């Protein structure tokens, strides 16, 4: 039975790795006798057709599955026809099938991670996000608690998830993950809630996050601007600022990321209430900002502050308010580059790295600059996907891929903080 | 234009800006054909012909974006839209009285992300920014990204598809809040982007650059005679000010013919509202045209 060995050898040539199979088909060929086998082996043997046997018959009258590259479809069909070999096409487009599977898998992965059927691959209302935060705290009571740190201008609660393995009243060094400060940057809030579930689920399983949490606490604020977020859902998808009233002006809101006390009202902000980068009447005038400032200052032991925004695919560090080089710029740059590489390793998404002022534009009164100037050394801004094609309106099917790659970047940073506590 | 950018040169004081970025072609060869420089790459600094003037960071990026908007508009082909991949090299010269001239070479990619092929077009351009006034003067040539016949074929398919859409179009925003564009409406987005390219070209300066954020309304979609007559409102996102600018655009398109565009944008701060008209592919002086 030489032909068994022959086909057996060919199976070893199965294609692994990340090759693409656009338009490639799988033929199921019926071979009824030795004569047909030898005809088929003739076909499979031809170098230029590049056929690939998936399943060889162990006995007669069992079909053979062969992967036929799209370029060889015609010649193979002609050959089979001319030799009177019966066949059917069981897979019409291998790449499409693989893509579908990938999609489904990812979908299910996202589904699995949720209880209450919270779909991480979709955008949610404020209530739903708050409920899910509560749910995470409920699912992981030893690790996570939902903490109210204040309220918004329109009196909505500001909730933070605290992840801590500390005993008693220990005030461990801490990481602050900030998201959704600009309400229209929906991928930020979406990434944050995914990250919350990820931190909780992976603790005790993933060595990195486990060791991080043994040494530090993580505080995650998924919606730093709740009023703005609700407004983007109900009235204006592209709203950026808070919803505070500006006396004497018809225009509403201040840019919460120009409102921090770091070169407040300097270059890269506006004093016009109608501007998208209006800094507000004074530093911390926005209650949403003040709530975070008060909490962090009261805590007194934060070592890392990361602010998630979109879009542009950038990973930046201080300063935004000056071109002057920050004292720790070299170290922050090195960490950021490593984080960007880790992020890119998942799907090839490339991020540019650099100090805010020269990487994007001058910006005064920003959260990250404030953090840095208040002894929170590891201060970074992420501008998440994309680079302008969809911009703020990033399709929901990119949420989980974005969150997953961003997670690798976040971990890199947090691991460095863990290993360089001061 | 959504850029896949090179990292800007290392931060320094506001002074002479590096005017020439020479980036190894090797940096272009990434999996997706996207030529963003891997993190860590930098170009040598060299500034011939550069006077001691203030440059915004990313001047070359600005010039590339302006050039591409103009190129896309002039090509008039919704199936052959291009996006910036990477700036390869460039130099700038400044005339403090008149403005700033940028000569540059850059690579492009397909606008439509579904077209995943790794074809990089290459363009060389001369862009003249007129002291922060709009409408940079542009001279740009690009290598072929898509074979001419194929492009005409694609355009014609798009055109036929659009002709078959039920009017009036039962649609509000494209994309919707969740970033979704129905596949049947994708050609509308591409055509809108083509029209917006004209507007974005006119409005780009050394400091301002734009992205098309959303089609907020379709006012009219007519295909009575052969031309597609499209009247819509688009929201442009200006990056450095973060402003959203609604622009009403009225375009006429037929495959192979030059695009006709009229527009009117609402500006936040400036007292004058910006608008313009373009017929044919010649660079005509702007006419104020109010709807």
Automatic annotation (TrEMBL), chain A:
Cellular component GO terms held in the UniProt record: extracellular space
Keyword Acyltransferase assigned: no
Residues annotated as domain Peptidase M14: 122-417
Function: Carboxypeptidase that catalyzes the release of a C-terminal amino acid, but has little or no action with -Asp, -Glu, -Arg, -Lys or -Pro. Catalyzes the conversion of leukotriene C4 to leukotriene F4 via the hydrolysis of an amide bond.
Places the protein is found: Secreted
Active site as annotated: 383
Organism: Neovison vison
Name of the protein in its database record: Carboxypeptidase A1
Automatic annotation (TrEMBL), chain B:
Signal sequence extent: 1-36
Lineage: superkingdom: Eukaryota
An example molecular function term from Gene Ontology annotations: metalloendopeptidase inhibitor activity
Presence of keyword Repeat: yes
Pfam families for this protein: LXN
Domain Cystatin LXN-type, chain residue ranges per copy: 42-150, 170-273
Segments of this protein annotated with the region Disordered: 270-291
GO CC aspect terms: extracellular space
Keywords: Protease inhibitor, Repeat, Signal
Record has Repeat as a keyword: yes
Assigned protein family: Belongs to the protease inhibitor I47 (latexin) family.
The protein, known as: Retinoic acid receptor responder 1
Source species of the chain: Neovison vison (American mink)
Gene coding for it: RARRES1
């Amino acid at each position: 039975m030489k032909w068994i060995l022959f086909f057996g050898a060919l199976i070893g040539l199965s294609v692994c790795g990340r090759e693409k199979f656009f338009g490639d088909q799988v033929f199921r060929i019926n071979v009824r006798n030795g004569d047909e086998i030898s005809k088929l082996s003739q076909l499979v043997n031809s170098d230029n057709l590049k056929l690939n046997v998936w399943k060889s018959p162990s006995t007669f009258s069992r079909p053979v599955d062969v992967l036929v590259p799209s370029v060889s479809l015609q010649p193979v069909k002609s050959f089979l026809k001319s030799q009177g070999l019966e066949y059917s096409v069981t897979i019409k487009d291998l790449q499409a099938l693989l893509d579908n599977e990938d999609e489904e898998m990812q979908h299910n992965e996202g589904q699995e991670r949720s209880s209450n059927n919270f779909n991480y691959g979709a955008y949610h209302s404020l209530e739903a996000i708050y409920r899910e935060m509560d749910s995470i705290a409920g699912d992981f009571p030893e690790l996570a608690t939902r903490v109210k740190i204040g309220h918004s201008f329109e009196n909505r609660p500001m909730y933070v998830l605290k992840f801590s393995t500390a005993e008693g009243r220990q005030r461990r060094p801490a990481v602050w993950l900030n998201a959704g400060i600009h309400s229209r940057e929906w991928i930020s809030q979406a990434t944050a809630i995914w990250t919350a579930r990820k931190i909780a689920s992976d603790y005790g399983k993933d060595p990195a996050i486990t060791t991080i949490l043994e040494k530090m606490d993580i505080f995650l604020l998924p919606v730093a601007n709740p009023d703005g977020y609700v407004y983007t859902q109900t009235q204006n998808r592209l709203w950026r600022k808070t919803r505070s009233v500006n006396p004497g002006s018809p225009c509403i809101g201040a840019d919460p990321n120009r409102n921090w006390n770091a070169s407040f009202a300097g270059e890269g902000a506006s004093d016009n209430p109608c501007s998208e980068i209006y800094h507000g009447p004074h530093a911390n005038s926005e209650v949403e900002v003040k709530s975070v400032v008060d909490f962090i200052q009261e805590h007194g032991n934060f070592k890392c502050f990361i602010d998630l925004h979109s879009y542009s695919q950038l990973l930046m560090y201080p300063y935004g308010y000056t071109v002057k080089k920050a004292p720790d710029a070299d170290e922050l740059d090195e960490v950021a580059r490593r984080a960007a590489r880790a992020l890119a390793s998942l799907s090839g998404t490339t991020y540019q790295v650099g100090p805010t002022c020269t990487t994007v534009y001058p910006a005064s009164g920003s959260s990250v600059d404030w953090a840095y100037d208040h002894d929170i050394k590891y201060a970074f801004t992420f501008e998440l996907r994309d680079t302008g094609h969809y911009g703020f309106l990033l399709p929901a099917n990119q949420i989980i891929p974005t969150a997953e790659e961003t997670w690798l970047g976040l971990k890199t940073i947090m691991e460095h903080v863990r290993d360089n506590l001061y | 234009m959504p850029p896949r950018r090179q990292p800007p040169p290392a931060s320094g004081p506001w002074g002479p800006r590096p005017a020439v970025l020479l980036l190894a072609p090797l940096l272009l060869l990434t999996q997706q054909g996207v030529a963003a420089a891997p993190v860590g790459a930098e170009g040598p600094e060299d500034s011939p012909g550069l006077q001691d003037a203030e440059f915004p960071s990313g001047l070359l990026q600005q010039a590339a974006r302006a050039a591409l908007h103009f190129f896309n508009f002039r090509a008039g082909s919704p199936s052959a839209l291009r996006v910036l991949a990477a700036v390869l090299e460039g130099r700038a010269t400044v005339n403090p009285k008149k403005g700033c001239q940028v000569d540059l070479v850059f690579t492009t990619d397909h606008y439509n992300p579904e077209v995943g092929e790794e074809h990089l077009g290459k363009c060389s351009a001369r862009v003249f920014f007129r002291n922060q006034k709009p409408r940079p003067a542009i001279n740009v040539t690009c290598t072929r990204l898509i074979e001419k016949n194929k492009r005409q074929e694609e355009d014609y398919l798009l055109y036929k598809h659009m002709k078959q859409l039920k009017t009036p179009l039962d649609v509000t925003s494209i994309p919707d809040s969740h970033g979704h564009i129905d596949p049947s409406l994708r050609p509308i987005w591409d055509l809108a982007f083509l029209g917006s390219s004209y507007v974005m070209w006119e409005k780009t300066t050394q400091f301002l650059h734009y992205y098309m954020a959303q089609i907020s309304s379709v006012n009219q979609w007519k295909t009575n005679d052969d031309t597609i007559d499209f009247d819509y409102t688009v929201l442009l996102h200006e990056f450095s000010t973060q402003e959203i600018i609604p622009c009403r655009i009225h375009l006429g398109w037929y495959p192979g013919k030059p695009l006709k565009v009229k527009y009117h944008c609402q500006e936040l701060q400036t007292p004058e509202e910006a608008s313009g008209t373009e017929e044919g592919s010649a660079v005509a002086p702007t006419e104020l045209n109010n709807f």
